[in-house]
Amino acid sequence: MPSVLIVDDLLSIHEMLEAVIQPTGFITAFATDGEKALARYKVEKYDLVLADIDMKPMDGITLLKQLKAYDPNSVTVIMTAYASTESAIQALKFGAFDYMQKPFRVDELIATLKRGLDFKQFTAERASGAVAPVIKSADVEGRLLGQSAANKRLIQQVKKLATVRTPVLLQGESGTGRSTVAEILHAGSASPESPFVRIDCSLSSASDFRDGLLGHNGSGGLWVDKARGGTLLLQNLHILELATQQELVGVLRNTAHGFRLICTTTEDLEKLTDEGRFNDELFYRVASLPVVLPPLRDRREDIPLLVKYFLGTASNPAFEANLIEFTDDAIETLQAYHWPGNLSELGQLITKIAATTATRVVTSEQLPLRLKEIKDWPRLADYLAAQEKQYMDMVLNACRGDKSAAAKVLGVDIAKL
Q: What angle do CA 352, 357, 359 make, to 5 degrees?
C-alpha cells in the first residue's frame, strides 16, 4: 500500500488526517516537526510527504529543500493556513508537488495525494525504463543541428528533460526552434501513439480558449481531455491576460499531472512576474525547468551546417538542390548577418535561393541586400536626413519654387528650405 508521511506540530491534525486518508488506501505515518520528518524519511522512504509550512524548529519550506537535496524524486505536498498564496508559491518555487490551503476539502486532499502518487509511480517506472523508450541521442542531434557550444548545451538539456514528465518552459526568440524542441520532448516522455495537443495562445479566441482549455468547472475543457496521457503544448503563454492566467492555475492544479505540460514564450516570464505582469503562481508551476533556446547570432559557427541541411530539403527545377554550393564569401556574409528571424529566416532564405538560382555556385553578390555587413549600411540619421531632404524638394517643386508656401505645407521654418 502507498505510504504518506504527515508532518504537523498539532496532534489533532494528525488524528483528523489519519481518519480521512487511511480509508482511501494509504498507510499513514507521523512526525511533529521537520527534523523528525527528515530522519524518518531517510529510514523508510515514504511515497509522499504531506507537511505543514509553519513548524519549529524546521519549517515546511526548509524540510522541502532538504528532502529535495536528499531525494530529488521525493513528492511533497505543502499545507498552509495563510490567506495569501505567497508561502504556497514559495513552496512551488522550491519543488513542492502542490499545496493545500487550510481549511481544505477532503476530496481535494485525496485527489491531490492520488495525483502525487501517480507522478511518483511514473517517475519510478521511467527510471526503470517501463514507460516510454529513452530517447536516442541521434533523435535529438539529428533535429537540433550544430556543433557550437550554445547548441551543445541545448542538446544536453533536451536529452535530460526528454525522460521526465515535469513541466518545461521553452523560452526564446521567434524562429529559434521551440516547437521542434517540444516535439522532441513529447517523443521522449510519451508512447508513440499518445496525443500531442498544440494550443497557440496568441491565435485562440477568448471563447475557444475557455471551452477548450479552461472548461466551466475548473477541470479543464476539450483540449485538456484530448491531452490526457500525452502532451499539452501551450505556445506564446505570455499573451494570456492576467485574469485568464489565474483561471489556468486552477485548471493545472486539477489536471496538470494527467499530461506532460510544455509552454513556450518569447518573453522573459520571470521579469514579467517581478513586474506584476504575469501570474506568479502560474510562473512557478510552468517554469520549474526553463530552457532558453539560443538565437542564431549566438551560434554563427553552425550556419555552414544549417545551410547544407536546408539545401537538402529544398528543390531546384534545373538540378539537385543539394548540389548547390555557397562560396566562402557567401558563407561569411551569412555569418555576419544578425538574423532577427533566426532559423526560420535562414531556412526560408536558403530555400528561396535554391529554388531560383540558375548557377550551382552561389556567391555573396547573389544574396539579398539586407544581408550586407553592418558597416556598409548608412547611419540612420544620414538616411532619415536624405529622406527628409527628398520630401522637402518634392513639396517645393509642387509649390513651383514658392518657399513660403512650401514651408506652410511642411510646417517648418522657411530657413530650412
A: 150
The number of beta carbons lying within 10 Å of the beta carbon of residue 385 is 12
3-class DSSP state for residue 321? Answer: helix
- Spatial neighbors of 25 by CB under 8 A, at least 6 apart, are 1, 2
* Structural domain total, the chain: 4
Residue 229 CA to residue 214 CA, distance in Å, equals 18
State the Cα–Cα distance between residues 184 and 141, nearest whole angstrom. 10
Q: Both 304 and 346 in a single domain?
A: yes
pTM: 0.72
| CATH number of the domain where residue 346 is located | 1.10.8.60
pLDDT at 134: 53
Residue-range definition of the domain harbouring residue 390: 380-416
| Beta-bridge mates of residue 29 | 5
Secondary structure (3-state) at 264 = strand
**pLDDT (0 to 100) of residue 132:** 46
Q: Which of 82-91, 206-215, 298-307 has the lowest mean pLDDT?
A: 82-91
At 234, is the secondary structure helix, strand, or coil? strand
289 and 322 belong to one structural domain: no
Half-sphere exposure of residue 146, counting CA atoms within 13 Å on the CB side? 25
Mean pLDDT, residues 357-368 taken together? 92
Residue 193 and residue 272 share a domain: yes
Task: Point out the domain boundary residue: 110, 128, 146.
Answer: 128
281 with 322, same domain: the answer is no
Most confident of 218-222, 378-382, 398-402: 398-402
Q: What is the pLDDT of residue 371?
A: 86
For residues 165-185, average pLDDT? 92
Cβ atoms of 224 and 215 closer than 8 Å = yes
SS3 199: strand
Higher pLDDT, 38 or 318: 38
> Where residue 84 sits, what CATH number does that domain have?
3.40.50.2300
Q: Which residue has the higher pLDDT, 160 or 34?
A: 34
Do residues 263 and 386 both lie within one domain? Answer: no
**Together in a domain, 283 and 237:** yes
Q: Which three cell numbers stand for residue 306?
A: 544549417
Cross-strand pairs, 99: 78
C-alpha to C-alpha distance for 129 and 202, rounded to whole angstroms: 37
